[in-house]
């Protein structure tokens, strides 16, 4: 059988499909990593809120036990405000991380489409090769049948002359 003329293209498409699959896999891993970071930040915010409430209650109990006046209450207010500011910073980090996750999700979808396109292109060239191989086989079979017919005709004519 003669060599397939588009073999190089077939190999290029196979490599492109494999690279697209690897890129898709890497994008999935990156998305999972970003989601894990988002979960960690959300857990940290929840922990900080609970911790703030506990610290404020402990500080309030301490102030009440000492019998401190307005100055102690002001200090407690500043302490609570500082903790709330830290929580607000974590909340901002969470919002930034949500955007990063959205970008990662879009990247995954892009890589999925690229992978599907590469697979479709490879499938098309493979189908072309199959069709080409069938055509070559059919042509070879037709030539063999023609040769067999010519041999049969030659034998028949040779017998007729005798």
TrEMBL record:
It comes from the Bacteria. Keywords: Cell projection, Cilium, Coiled coil, Flagellum. Residues 6-55, 94-149 form a coiled coil. InterPro entries: Flag_assembly_chemotaxis_eff, YscO-like. This is Flagellar export protein FliJ. It comes from Stigmatella aurantiaca (strain DW4/3-1). The gene is fliJ.
């Amino acid at each position: 059988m003669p060599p397939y003329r588009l073999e190089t293209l077939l190999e290029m498409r196979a490599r492109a499909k494999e690279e697209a699959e690897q890129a898709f896999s890497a994008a999935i891993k990156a998305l999972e990593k970003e989601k894990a970071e988002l979960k960690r930040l959300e857990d940290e915010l929840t922990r900080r809120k609970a911790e703030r409430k506990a610290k404020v209650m402990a500080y309030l109990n301490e102030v009440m036990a000492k019998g401190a006046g307005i100055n102690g209450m002001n200090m407690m207010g500043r302490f609570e405000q500082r903790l709330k500011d830290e929580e607000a910073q974590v909340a901002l980090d969470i919002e930034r991380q949500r955007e990063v996750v959205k970008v990662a999700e879009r990247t995954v979808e892009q890589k999925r489409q690229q992978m599907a396109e590469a697979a479709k292109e490879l499938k098309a060239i493979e189908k072309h090769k199959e069709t080409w191989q069938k055509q070559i086989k059919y042509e070879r079979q037709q030539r063999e049948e023609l040769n067999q017919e010519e041999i049969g005709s030659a034998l028949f004519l040779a017998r007729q002359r005798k």
